[in-house]
Amino acid sequence: MAASVKMAGVACVLVVGVLWLSAGQSAACDGHPCPTPAGKCPINTVKLGVCADVLDGLIHASTPPKEPCCPLIAGLADLDAAVCVCLAINANLLGLNLDVPVDLSLLLNYCGCRLPAGFKCA
């Protein structure tokens, strides 16, 4: 008898948890399923601060070295690389005043990636 009461208690907690989570998602996304991000940044974006010199060199028409910036995003899919650089820009890790769409595209192209069509760095 005690085991069945314990199981009923566990089931109740699970049901309440599921209801609470689904209510939170509905409220956060106006009753619609919350979208999941299409891209991800598998690297620590703080490391992308080393890209400031590269981007500054590209903006001022010199030929900056690709090390150590480009190897950080070299193995990533284009969308993931764009997300990582966008996160670094939004966190102001590069310490530069940027024209985000143009400079994001410059840096990605320089490092062998492409800015995906329609990608917005928000």
Automatic annotation (TrEMBL):
Q: InterPro entries recorded for this chain?
A: Bifun_inhib/LTP/seed_sf, Bifunc_inhib/LTP/seed_store, Hydrophob_seed_dom, Plant_LTP/defense-related
Carries keyword Signal? yes
> Would the keyword Signal be found if you checked this record's keyword annotation?
yes
Instruction: Name the UniProt key words of this record, in alphabetical order.
Output: Signal
Signal sequence region:
1-28
Transmembrane feature ranges:
none
- A Pfam family reported for this protein in Swiss-Prot or TrEMBL: Hydrophob_seed
Q: Which domain of life is it from?
A: Eukaryota
Domain Bifunctional inhibitor/plant lipid transfer protein/seed storage helical spans what residues? 41-121
Query: Sorted alphabetically, which SUPFAM superfamilies does this protein's record hold?
Result: Bifunctional inhibitor/lipid-transfer protein/seed storage 2S albumin
What name goes with this protein? Bifunctional inhibitor/plant lipid transfer protein/seed storage helical domain-containing protein
Source species, please?
A: Oryza barthii
